[in-house]
Amino acid sequence: MTISVGVVGAGPAGLTFAAALAQQGGFEVSVFDRAEDHFSVETYNPDRSYTIDITGHGLRAARHIDITDRFDAELIHFKGLKIAPHPLLRRLGAGYAEERYHGRGWTGSRGDICRCLQAHLRERHASSVTLHFGAEATLVDAGQPGLRIASRSDAPGELRRFDLVVGCDGGGSGVRRAIADHSSGFSVEGADLGNHSLMLHLDQHLDELDPQYLYVLAVQPVMAVAGAINGPAGPADPRWFCQIGFNGPMRFGSSEDARRFLDQAHPLLRHFASQAMVEDFSHRQCLPTGKTKRCSSLVSGRVALLGDAGAPVPPVGQGVNAAMEGATVLARCLHDHRDALDAGLSAYASTWGRETDALRRIAMTVDLSQAMTPFRVLLASFAGYSGLRLAKREDLSYAEAWERFSRGEARVRRTPLGWFLPPRSAAVDLGPDRGHPVE
Questions:
Q1: Helix (H/G/I), strand (E/B), else coil: 198
Q2: CB of 75 within 8 A of CB of 235?
């Protein structure tokens, strides 16, 4: 018996999930996305195209769907982090500190990654996966799952029934909202650290940067992380972006204000960005990046939530990695329980729910509203219990990474350095059952 699956959203989560199901066989998958084909649009958004690294958990997923060779050929290889010295030390000749990543990994924009996944599906799984772009899919029933599919030429929309539906439609998920509106036992809680970010494009002295690294260019008074994505000619022609994080919305009165601010954060920011890029930066919209949500379950009836649709977290380098691994976990659960889909969905909800709770806890440690957050992050890194670094490890689950971070920080709290850490009751320690209703 072939099982029909409707997937809402053709981002990394939806495309990886479709590939994982197709590889297992016995599933007929239809993927719907309101946007255009990934090969018909720009691979990056100038306001938000921060560099994504696929490592650890994402690597496990890439191996599972057998796409690593394509990533090797079409994405930038990832070697780790380089951390800029304090301006005073830089003037004395100090160079970057290096945090090597010893596994296999890649970097790119969301569009770079989606192009690889879309090409993989069309070349390997065209017989069992159908991609529908420019198609708005709305959940109308979670129990006997149905999607109303509308396009620009089909205003009323066609109702299609599936054996199950998977929502992969991002942090503002319409599937999640539809479940919340129609399922009394389903609730969503959320929190907001207040983190915001602005994107600074880098365009000069780029020969000093290695595209195979992410660069931490500043930690005070803002966090600034730069990285490369594919340019017009692919990995050999990288574009550079620097995501600058704030503890709230930021607006500049003029490009001169922006220039002074960047100089204060770290001289390297303007070293790599021309005056034209600073001008663009000063007018760019500051985007919220500190929101997180927790659903009472990742499953409702015959509908599952995957990636940011089920568990959005502030960016700490794991959003796409977690989405891709979660997709393979869901696919395996469905395959193992193909004669009892409800049991497969239940297994996914319990297994992956624990992982998303742990990842959210790790992400919430990067709370820019806490003055000592940069110290907390650097201390954890130098002391060897960094949650951000542990989350990248292929051999650890997110739950294990969180446990190791917690033990490491507990040891530090028993020393004089513990006085400089945020209190345990701060928002960074938001547990899985705390927060406020957001939908």
A1: strand
A2: yes
Q: What is the 3-state secondary structure (H, E, C) of 347-365?
A: HHHHHHHHHHHHHHHHHCC
The CA distances from residue 416 to 377, 412, 421, in Å, are 17, 8, 10
* CATH of region 73-109+193-288, choose from 3.40.630.10, 3.50.50.60, 3.40.190.10, 3.40.50.150: 3.50.50.60
CB 149 within 8 A of CB 32: yes
Tell me how far apart the alpha carbons of residues 341 and 333 are, in angstroms, rounded to a whole number.
9
pLDDT digits (tens, 9 = 90+) for 356-398: 999 999 998 888 777 778 788 888 888 889 998 899 999 999 9
80: left (phi over 0), alpha (psi -120 to 50) or beta: left
Residue 50 token pair: 């921060």
- In the chain, domain spans: 73-109+193-288
Whether the model pTM is above 0.85 = yes
Instruction: Measure the CA–CA gap between 253 and 257, rounded to whole angstroms.
Output: 6
Crossing angle of helices 56-64/319-336, nearest 10°? 40
| 128-187 residue pLDDT tens | 999 999 999 999 987 889 999 998 655 678 899 999 999 999 999 999 999 999 888 899
